[in-house]
Amino acid sequence: MILFLAGYESGHWDRLQKEKQRERQLLLADGSPSRELDGSASPDPEPVEPILEPFHQTKLRLSLRGKWGEHKMNADEGVTAAVMVKWYCLKAGLDPSSAEKLRLQIDGELVRPETAVRDMEVEDKDQVDIL
């Protein structure tokens, strides 16, 4: 037996439930005989096409590269540049206090330590330099 599971974000699930409720109300309002809505006496339902929305990725896979090596990082949108530099120091075997001296650089521009990933001009699988 093969079992397929589908997961929905809560907003999408709520919209699907509202659409089902609207369909039920339309079936009852068009004068057709009342049907059991609990699924016990269900007629052959018409297949419903799922509504597919683009997936909004909240984590970016970034490659942090400096003179101490290159390390890959999964960064949430809220992670700041300072946290990314500290993480790089840990992965590269540097003293975490040296993170205060290092900076991120994206496309030749220095990034302020308090800048969050969502505010940086980076995409998934981009490379970020550590100076």
How much of the sequence lies in strands comes to 15-25%
State the total count of DSSP E strands.
5
Mean pLDDT rating: 81
CATH architecture of one domain: Roll
Q: Quick one: biggest sheet?
A: 5 strands, mixed
Helix/strand order, N-terminal first: HEEHEEE
Annotated CATH homologous superfamily of one domain: Phosphatidylinositol 3-kinase Catalytic Subunit, Chain A, domain 1
- CATH topology type of one domain: Ubiquitin-like (UB roll)
How many alpha or pi helices? Answer: 2
What is the top-level CATH class of one domain? Alpha Beta
SS-derived structural category = alpha+beta
Tell me the span between the first and last alpha carbons: 55 Å
| Parts with pLDDT < 50 across at least 5 consecutive residues | 34-40
Gyration radius, in Å = 25 Å
Shape: elongated
Helix content: 10-25%
Largest beta sheet: strand ordering = 2-1-5-3-4
Brief descriptors of the model:
single chain, 131 residues, 5-stranded mixed beta sheet, alpha+beta, Ubiquitin-like (UB roll), 2 helices
Explained architecture:
- The chain is α+β, with helices and mostly antiparallel strands and 131 residues long.
- The chain has a domain at 59-130: Ubiquitin-like (UB roll), CATH 3.10.20.90.
- It contains two helices and five strands.
- It has a five-stranded mixed β-sheet with strand order 2-1-5-3-4, covered by helices on one side.
- Strand 1 (59-66) and strand 2 form a beta hairpin.
- The protein is elongated, with a radius of gyration of 25 Å.
- The N and C termini lie far apart (55 Å).
